[in-house]
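Narrative summary of target 7.
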Amino acid sequence: MIYLDNGATSFLKPAAVWRAMAEASRTCASPGRGSYAAAAAADEAMYRCRKSAGALFDCEPEQVVFTMNATHALNMAIRTLVRPGGRAVISGFEHNAVVRPLHLLGAKVTVAGTKLFDRERVLSEFDAAIRPGTDAVICTHVSNVFGFILPIGEIASHCRARGVPLIVDASQSAGCLPISLKALSAAFIAMPGHKGLYGPQGTGLLLCGRLPEPILAGGTGSMSRLPSMPDFLPDRAEAGTPNVTGVCGLNAGLCFVRERTPEGILAHEKRVCAKILEELRSVEGVTRFGSLDEQQTGVFSLRCGTDCEIAAQRLAERGIAVRAGLHCAPLAHKSAGTLESGTVRISPTVFTTVKEAGAAGKLLALLLDEERRGEA
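Modeled conformation, tokenized:
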């Protein structure tokens, strides 16, 4: 299989990830629940991962909260800052992991930054939208559909100047772009462990610039006399027995990313995408979104003049994994004008070779040409 769906999950993992998980399942009990060797090993493993994340994302280990995924992390961050019926400003490229929690809160939502691959326009719209009374600005760093890199540093500056807290969804940027909690002065940065960080599913991180409100209460192994959750990080946001095995796999993924560097990973993914687009250059009726310039990561979408779901299915039958449809981000498709058609998304991994990209591009070109000529 040629895997081009890293935007959903990094199905291909470094071997060190699986080794770390196997070792953890053999040696680690529950952290904070005892002084015996297996509990101590779990404590040490959890802290190692916090240190790895802190080193990669420029924060203190204690500011790293483990979650089940980015959706879990975003829900915690949003419920901390946005009161029921409150006001939030979001970009026009947000995932349902942002839109739906705000809907559940009955929040008044202003959508800013709806022009694809126009950072100046996005920044101008955010500038106009961030007003007194805004509970929070919530912005994706990179569109999961189009790979569009939003001007998160400048948006953060506007938020700081107006005293409005910022939540960053780094689901598509963690692992391929530099991220600094300190530099952004964000209230929270949420990310999954299973995408660009090459960790296992069921892991995620919430980087905390302030104390979050817990959305789950229970045992933490600390301050057990209190009926309420502890008032310090990371314990306040981590109730119940943690996913130690997953965290150990995530730590191995973080170490892999630090060794390869986000810049190196991004450069490789862009080379792979460029090879696929080279093979599609002569195919009629294909609209590609973006040109892999400095505004885009190694992710791109196509509108191919035929049903995108059928195109993805035909590729899957030939061993090429892509994602098609609305990608859980109808707001992004509305902004780009693709809400009715959807798109085929290509999102390679660091393990995708240029040779595989050429083969995938040739096959995709052939299938699209057949569809256009009615030969499918």
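The domain at 262-372 is CATH 3.90.1150.10 (Aspartate Aminotransferase, domain 1).
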